[in-house]
Prior knowledge:
Helices cover 68% and strands 0% of the residues. It has 171 residues and is mainly α. The longest helix has 22 residues, at 39-60.
Amino acid sequence: MHRRDVYYTLKNATLNLNIAFLYIPSELYQGDSFFEGDEKMAEKMSAREQTFILTFEKSFNNDVTIDELIGFANESENLTVCEKAKLAAKGIDRNLEEIDGIIEKHLRSWRKSRLSKVALAVLRMGVYELTLSKTAPVGVIISEAVNICKTYGSDEDKTFVNGVLGAVARG
């Protein structure tokens, strides 16, 4: 299965808990052929992508905990969630009201309910990193959020996410 198939699965399918985990190609998480260069960078990108997947899944399944989603991911054997992704996904879930408030504050002529699930999940992850965890430089956080949108979202998503995260970073 190719990344494009993952994109269509995530964008168009009515998801159940396991569908995103079952269709994620293993090369996305191994760091050798897909991520070129520094292994630390590949590890961070992998953690961000895993965080995105967990956050995206959670948006469809509010009654399921992050720990349960991580369990489903690990059971599928196509995705082992790293510790960084677990911490970030739990942090996003724990601070969801605050994060969504920050997102809504920076939406111009938009409502959160109009955002695609991909854009909302990436925004939640980006806002969490920019405002609460602050574990990477602003440019890296925004760039990697846009790259996740390029993979899983539409052209509009990547432009929109870039603008909103830029506004959040500027304060």
